Amino acid sequence: MVAATPLIIAGAAFIVGAKAGLFNIGLEGQLLVGGMAGLIAGFSLPGLPLVIHLPLALAFAFVAGGIWAGFAGWMKVASGAHEVITTIMLNFLALRLVEFLLRHPPVQNPERADPISKSVLDSAALPPILAWLDPSLRVNFGILLALLVALAVGFLLWRTKLGFEIRVMGVSPRAGRVAGMNPARTIILSMVLSGGIAGLAGASLTLGVLGRATPDFTAGLGFEAIAVALLARLHPVGVVFSGILFGALTAGGRYMGVAAGVSIDLVTVIQAVVLLCIAAPVLIKRLYPFIFSSAKEV
Fold it and tell me: Per DSSP, which regions of the chain are E strands?
């Protein structure tokens, strides 16, 4: 559950952009920026109660991630720059920004010479939910946040006007324009929402299991979340189950490496095989359409 939490949230973030026809490959950078913003709010505001400090830190993470992704949306609308290119470049900018912050006060831990941040205050940390069973268990309220995010994304996409516009623009922008929708507004809002949710995924790391930040603390989770969303067929409910699957593979792979000496790379191979099996029917149908047309005639 600990490994699945950021994957579910970031996977839901990717779904929002994908439903609008946008390939938000910048989840990694948005996780970094959102996680840092939530962490800074988590150690810079002492004296606040948990019920105020924790939501405030999560709000900082959402806003930071949304603004970071909003740049890509704005550039696409203003100049036609493809979101894949702009979000990839923003990933590197986010990584360097985090490295810069971790080496300078007031973010860097004054007791350390290496790039490590201050620790989040207890009033802004995601509380553990199984400490009564075993204090060593790291499962926290982040898993509940992940479930709420998945439900919220589902409600947004299928129960709101904005969600309808997002889905229409993803299927046919021309039809959306004819119906009176604003493509520029929808693109920017989709990227902002996608980045904001990804920022929450980063905050689930810095405010939860890690409690602080180091360079590249996301460890590629943003890219792995794209695979989680694709495995879920871009559905918010499916992303919960695919996130748990990938989380189980990650957690089990670590134990497998210690207990049986099996390389952790085997987990990556299994994930790739799963995605290949999911993508194979679509690829075959597009590469060899005559096979399916002949089967229908028979």
Answer: none
